[in-house]
Amino acid sequence: MAAIAHRDGVGETSEASRGADVVPSGHGVSRLSLHDRLLGWRDLILSNPAFQRFAGSFALTRPIARRRASELFDLCAGFVYSQVLFACVRLKLFDQLADGPLGSAELASLVPLPADATLMLLDAAVSLRLLQRRSDGRYGLGSRGAALRGNPGVVAMIEHHAMLYADLRDPIALLRGDVGAGQLAAYWPYAGNRRAANLSRDAIAPYTALMAASQPMISQQVLSAYSFRGHRCLLDVGGGDGSFIAAVVAHAPKLRCVLFDLPAVADQASERFRTEGLSSRAVAIGGSFLANHLPEGADIVSLVRVIHDHDDADIMTLLRAIHLALSSDGTLLIAEPISGVRGAEPIGDAYFAFYLLAMGSGRPRTFARLRDMLTEAGFMDIALRPNAMPMLASVITARKSR
Description:
By secondary structure, the protein is an alpha/beta fold. The chain is 49% helix and 15% strand.
């Protein structure tokens, strides 16, 4: 900016103009880049009430202004929207409409809710495309409601979110660490628990069932990104009730599998393998990767939604144990939502960041951070593999260095 005249007639650059080019830093003053100055100029324009009024009335900018206003309102109203969704799931409204549209009076008797409350919920669900108005004043599934009904894993997570909402009731206190362990910490009792191997079947049953319900959509992403047919033995660490192994063996009929999880969880997996006739190809072993050696000899190890649940020190312990257990030139496959995925940033950087903070263990990590950790543990050829829905899980492979 040009110099302005001082009242004494001496040319001098104003404090305001210097502020456009420099900002305070921990070591004095730092000069802003051209990119930062352009963004600052943008911020000044977008926050100007006069510009907002102009953009909302001018024909060429009106659609953009309306879209951005709607997006901003959605952020403000998001909790209300999620509670509408939660009510629909808790009342099994999508199941009630699975066989065809129904009127509000009939739905009120099935739900059950008072007639006026039912109508309010139905209209709110229509506005969110969970439901859709049909002929003769009836209601049917909307595009989102139909998709949800076909995905029981997401429905299970929606019901589970009641705990998350309770733990996030004061997000600032959570960020400051002023609150103790909440409902999520109790729900995931293995998190940060050095004695997790002693957990009972009753203690692990809720989270094991939730993970099993959501496993099919994760398995689909992994199998679309990587083929197990070239391997002879898979070790699935933290494999839960065996849902992932059951999905993999259907695609790799010659693959032998070993599941390693807490003893009470491994018992459930063994029961599943027996029930589904997989006992000749899959075995479950109980233990804790923090306290026990991993079974050796597998040429591929999978970690499906395991790493982001744990803190760095524990993950480095696990990665080194896997490197030791893998056969020469073996492969490690990681599948989980990661931070910084283009197009899915809110999933990793907002949702999982706060979920894991409430849980009291772990954090979402970028691919770069995971690559550094894998390299430190002795892995090489680390790659992020393309898959259709990285918002559900990204797939990373690495090879054991010799």
